[in-house]
Amino acid sequence: MIDLQDIITTKRELLSRETYSRSPINYSAGMAEDQKERYIQYFAEQNQDLRLTSDAMKLVLEDFMAQMKDLKDQVSSMESKHADLENRLSEEHKLLKSAERKIKSLQERLDYAHQERFGDRRQKIQSKAKTSDSDRWKEKDDYDGTDDTLRTDSVGHAPSQEVKESSKKERDLSNRPDGYKRMGVVGEAIEHPSDLTKFPGRIIERRMVRVFSFRTFLMEECFEMVHYAEPGKKPKWGYFPSEGHPEVVTNIEGTKASPEFLQAIAYEVYVKNVTFGLLHQWLTDMGMTISKNTLRNWLKKGKTYLDELVCVLKSIALEKDSIVNCDETWCKVRKYDHYKKCYIWVLVNKARKTAIFFYENGSRGRDVLTDFLGDAELKSIMSDGYNAYVFIGNELKSGRFKDTVHQVCMSHAKNKFVKASNQGSEPNAERFSEILKEFFMRDRKYDDAGLTPKERFQERQSLATKELLIELRSLLDSELTKDSEFRSQYYKKLSII
């Protein structure tokens, strides 16, 4: 290819040179006619060969240029593919770095979980530094009977009683309480005194011996109903209690069970997971005649009244602009012949001293909470960091609760920072946990001091508490300014503190 280019360039240079006329050389002078004809014929054949060679070279050049064009297209395509591969390689490299960071974080969490599950949690006592034993035979040789040669460094000085007691207290790892509560039952005890006339001799001492007995019994109460008629009115039934008797008939409407009886069988069935067969057998053994279906109907009847009670409690707990706390936990629920892990929720309104437990098919989804809250216009909801609460205060996820402030529980936040500090040795996480721990320690001091709510409020507004809040807010602002991929969304919710 390079030689052909040189030939073409050289030819163009030769053609571009200036020409000048000169007398041609007559090479055929003195030749015979037949020689001239042969000479002309020879040059004609040479010219024909050169023309054919030139045409062939043109065809070869055209094929070569076509191949060069195809090669250029292929090179261009390869360059574009190479650029795409470089972009993909860069993206894969970024994903690999992100995956490595996630693997590191997960490995730290796994190590921490293994330490929490399988680690040795026994308290270890640091052994005392061993003192070098003195050579008693050498001391004997050095002693010559005078006071100056008497060594006292090997003499065991008996520690004082106070030191012994303090060291013993530090080594006591049994976590025994300072004092013990005596056993007892609320209410007056039934006393069984001795007959002093039956003693055969002199009485030295008398004391009561405590014995606890458990008695469960059924009692049938009969209320006398009177069928009476007032002048001008239809006859009707009524209960008119005598002095010292219940004011009303103590039964749930539609049943013959008192509220205490219905509460007892509901506790046996729904809390202790007692089957209706065992419950019926238990009541039968205590002398009651009743059928299993009657027990079921009584519980259904009680449920209707309980639902009405829950509606009343909801109207109290979910008042407008209320501040509530919410949480959920797992529980075992009996499903015919097996047990299933389900979840139960609780909502607490401390201002109204109301707590409501609710359960919907054992689900832990946020639909359980949204269905329970309904159209309530709450001021704030405090909860842990579970994902079911992320819709609170987020207009994009929920239009009903966009004006409700979501507060994160400080105790759960402290535990998160403690976990981050233990796993990643983050100094900021450790400082967060220390500040939150200080808040709880101050509240314990208020409890021990027996402060009134007003005094507690004044202490919480003190300068020392405000300094901690200012430091906590500065740490939060500093963390929020950083662009972190793994930052929790609850950092912003902590700024509400």
UniProtKB/TrEMBL annotation:
Residues 114-180 are annotated as: Disordered. Signal peptide: none annotated. It comes from the Bacteria. Residues 256-482 form the Transposase IS66 central domain. Transmembrane segments: none annotated. InterPro entries: Transposase-related, Transposase_IS66_central. Pfam families: DDE_Tnp_IS66. Residues 114-123, 130-151, 162-180 have a biased composition (Basic and acidic residues). This is Transposase IS66 family protein. It comes from Phocaeicola vulgatus (Bacteroides vulgatus).
